[in-house]
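pinned: reference chain
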Amino acid sequence: MKDKNYLQWLAEDTDTIWWHDSADKQLMQAAIENGAVGMTTNPFLMASALYADRTGWADITSGIELFSGNAKAFELEERVGGYYCRVLEDEWKKGVEGNGGVCAQTNPCIPGNAKLMIEQMKKLAGIAPNIFIKLPATKAGIQAFEEGIALGYNMVATVSFTVPQAVEVAKAHLRGIDKARANNITPGTGVAVNMIGRLDDYIRDVVADGGLGIDESDIIQAGLACAKKTYAIFQERGYPTIFMTAAGRGIYHVTELAGANIIMSISPAIEKQLLEASPSKTEKISAPIEPDVLVRLLTIREFAKAYNEDGMAADEFITYGPTNRTLTQFVESGWNKLVNF
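pinned: its structure tokens
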């Protein structure tokens, strides 16, 4: 029997499951063969896939010229999301929480407007039972997340990088569950994301700008530190929210969390690196960040905001550096490209 590769081992022999992070048809099929049981995508990734393979998506995009503006972007999300929901339908029907999901995202141009996000999530929820609706983990986005859970939708709080954001999402999930049950509705599945590598990117720039003298070996553990702390909090408090890590920048963002009862969203580039490097198949979620590394990182004010549970209030999430950076990319390189497809 052929030995399992790292991704297959992760999926089959640990508590960790993983989703493929792109909207590319061929790459998704390869990911499924290596154990992927879901798909995280967003306007940027959908636009990238559509523009890169117009011929391959011609059947899905036929007639899209009849739509314009935001309506066109939503139509493309519904069509592409619906396609992948069908691809993963059998996985979904297994009834295993976290399996078979596909993400679709509300308009990233309105991260502070809960009312509009709620209207949009109701539209996206009609794509398929296994659609997971992504919202930013801003104060307004978390309000909409709670309402989605109460309505029985599967919800994902993305554009999230910090411990306080994840904890607020988990609390909103609990409130949404209570509301759903009060109305005899089966609550939706809730997912709290940590875009782990994007925090590292931001801290790196903060360190350089401030001349803080923190080594790269410490910086690349910033996101891991927040992810490990969030996971420990979720486990200790028994939150029903699924924790998801995303936006990895190297295989260490997978290997150092291996064994955690979470969803890992893994990009094609990291998948390729894991297959080529064939790292040791060792569960490392219980290995702590070295105390001296944390001491040095906590001298960085922007890291302290991310790591301490009380580091930010909910109304500060929208102004946090990585939030602005990520939303800008989602708008300019994602949503606007769907609008103009």
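why pinned: The chain has one domain: 15-339. The two ends are 46 Å apart (CA to CA).
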